[in-house]
């Protein structure tokens, strides 16, 4: 057959925005209709481009559509068959690209929903009108969906997939999943005790605890789960509190607020790599020569080749071992090094002694202020509850209810803030007082570093001075100075 008689190479593009059951039935029906249309026009279908469960209006990548564009530009496809124009695109900007294909490559477009001749001004006008209508429908649908979600939020109802810690009933209500709720409470306790998210994730993975979709936990999804206000029974919408949700909370609001404060603290240094913190004093102890931080360096062993003894032909090797140490790594200095074990033990003894004597003042809270603030919170919440009951019973009007709540809510927020400020530091209670040594010995490196960082915020400084030749091989406690609030602290 001559080239003039060869059928036009065509590509079929099919798409469905949502395939909640993952069956692909929508695109299969589109494909059948498009194949029949291509056959009627005498076109040869060279490929089918299928984007299943992908929206054309949200700016998300459509792999099949991008592949179609490459094949059109390469001349492999000279005609496109779609079920309707809105399957190909729902944005006027993208539609202009299709029209440009027609002008540049002579591309033909066939639609099961009605013929569109892109080679004529009338056909291009029809395509643009259909594209504009499709865009209008998208915007209207989006507006209705947003309004529906707002209504659900205002009513305290859940929307979306199953959240970890709850099950979803047939009528879309949340009920506590006891096993997962226990995991949520456990994670909350561990975070407030100062444990890193990576450590919790590793533990959950080892235990086989999975996300609602059955996958392994990662640090960021775990963080998002712990930050959601749903945990304490609060319904939010676009970051704003809408009121109580229609489900049983897993933790109380006060505890959740402490979690949020901890995880969103700008001063909090995170470790999301999933690796354990190794060294206690890295970036905490200072070099006495240059004033910058020391870093931990792991120990190592290597062999040194030495001449053979008289009468021996084989070389000999001497083993040299260097213990783990804290060193100054900064160019222009690198003059300070100290054995890690000795320095850790020295600093720990000094810090623990200070925690035993003054830890309550530094790490504890104000018990009397906390009691007063909690009583104030309880009283204001009771008043708000009473006002809500009176409004529901038509004892007070809506205007009266709004005036009452408008006056009480700022007071309640102030009382809650006062309560948070007066509470003991999360997970640090045991480090203050006579049991400090026992708690310190049982804590991991990350928890100890958290205590040192908090003490550093209020005056703790650890300086390691140079001791001359042989620096780092012999430990000299007099070369290490631990100061606090400008007063030297001794072991």
TrEMBL record:
Residues 163-269 form the Recombinase domain. PANTHER family: DNA RECOMBINASE-RELATED, DNA-INVERTASE FROM LAMBDOID PROPHAGE. Pfam families: Recombinase, Resolvase. SMART domains: Resolvase (SM00857). This is DNA invertase Pin-like site-specific DNA recombinase. GO terms for molecular function: DNA binding; DNA strand exchange activity. PROSITE patterns: RECOMBINASE_DNA_BIND, RECOMBINASES_3. Residues 9-156 form the Resolvase/invertase-type recombinase catalytic domain.
